[in-house]
Write a structure and sequence with these properties.
Blueprint (H helix, E strand, L loop, with lengths): L11 H12 L4 H62 L7 H26 L3 H23 L2 H26 L6 H18 L11 H5 L10 H7 L5 H11 L5 H12 L14 H22 L7 H28 L1
Helix pairs in contact: 2-3, 2-11, 2-12, 3-4, 3-5, 3-11, 4-8, 4-9, 4-11, 5-6, 11-12
């Protein structure tokens, strides 16, 4: 088991040292004024927080009333995905054990992220939901690549965890003077990294280095592999990639990310910055499509003949219904705002 250190957070003494250094640059009279305002705000804090919470609760109730059917359909599809995967587990073959292990782990993460997307939408954060779907999209694409390949690629994907842990541990060591891992775990990781570098070559340590053999076998001779390379080498429809690039804008500090958020605020009936009562169609439908993609990837491994696709087709039917619900409500909300 890989263990982490419990001493990564700053101690009270270290925080006090930082505050003392900051005080050297603050005039004494300003510090007194700051303390006075601080105490005044703290005295009024319960009332301020209660008023804000009441306003947010009322706003969320209106949002829930508008979008309830879409959210309910979304939850039903998540439940159906669980049913599908549990049925597939019964059909798994020992010949595809590593692929199953890798894709099943990715599916579990996909389920968690799909729930996070829904919670963000239910609370009025469509930009955050779209940004979170970005990770779900990556999981779906990687799951599909692994399902297309043999057991060796899945093995590389699983083993690449050591390369990532080693890089993360070095980053913590550089920043805090002590690594993320315990001494014993760090030794295990370092030894495994040496073994993997010898086994697969230095390029294996790079981001997506585990996919290098699959990408190069498709005619791409790049030394460093990117996520776009993985997408291009797969059989997947590239339609959602445009939405993926759009989602990046709300994650990174690009000016278009600010413009997108500002538009949602201006067009919203919320008086609290950041909340929006629409723009849910793309994050909702794309998240469900990516979740279905993960299910299909697992299906290719557990049932390669594809004889039993009943539940997958049922899931697709629900996704279409959910998409129509969000789309029609989206159009209605935009019409009411004009």
């Amino acid at each position: 088991m890989i263990e982490t250190n419990d001493e990564q957070t700053l101690s009270v003494r270290e925080l006090q040292q930082i505050f003392d250094q900051i005080k050297e640059y603050i005039p004494a009279e300003m510090e007194a004024r700051v303390e006075s305002i601080y105490q005044e705000i703290m005295n009024q804090a319960p009332s301020i927080i209660e008023q804000r919470s009441h306003k947010v609760d009322e706003w969320r109730q209106r949002l829930s009333t508008r979008w309830r059917r879409g959210f309910d359909l979304y939850i039903l599809i998540q439940i159906l995905a669980d049913v599908i995967v549990n049925k597939l587990k019964e059909k798994r073959s020992t010949d595809s054990n590593k692929r199953f292990t890798a894709i099943y782990g990715l599916f579990f993460r996909a389920c968690v992220i799909a729930t996070e997307v829904r919670v963000l939408m239910e609370n009025g954060f469509p930009s955050g939901a779209l940004a979170r779907w970005r990770s779900l999209y990556e999981i779906g694409v990687i799951s599909w690549l692994i399902s297309e390949s043999d057991e060796s690629l899945a093995e590389k994907y699983i083993e690449h965890e050591y390369a990532e842990l080693n890089k993360l541990n070095d980053a913590f060591s550089s920043a805090y003077g002590k690594g993320l891992l315990s001494t014993a775990s760090e030794q295990v990781v370092k030894e495994k990294v040496i073994e993997l570098r010898t086994k697969y070559g230095k390029g294996f340590m790079d981001d997506y280095g585990w996919a290098s053999s699959a990408i190069q076998s498709n005619g791409n001779s790049k030394r460093k592999i990117t996520f776009h390379d993985i997408l291009e080498s797969s059989e997947l429809d590239k339609q959602m990639y445009a939405d993926y690039k759009f989602a990046c804008q709300s994650i990174h500090s690009a000016p278009s990310g600010f413009t997108q958020l500002a538009r949602q605020i201006i067009n919203s009936d919320a008086s609290i910055h950041g909340l929006a009562n629409r723009e849910f169609y793309i994050p909702a439908t794309n998240s469900l499509r990516s979740l279905l993609q993960c299910c299909l990837a697992l299906h290719r491994v557990c049932d390669p003949d594809g004889k039993d696709m009943l539940y997958q087709r049922l899931m697709l039917r629900f996704i279409k219904e959910c998409g129509n619900e969000f789309y029609e409500k989206e159009i209605s909300e935009k019409s009411n705002a004009t």
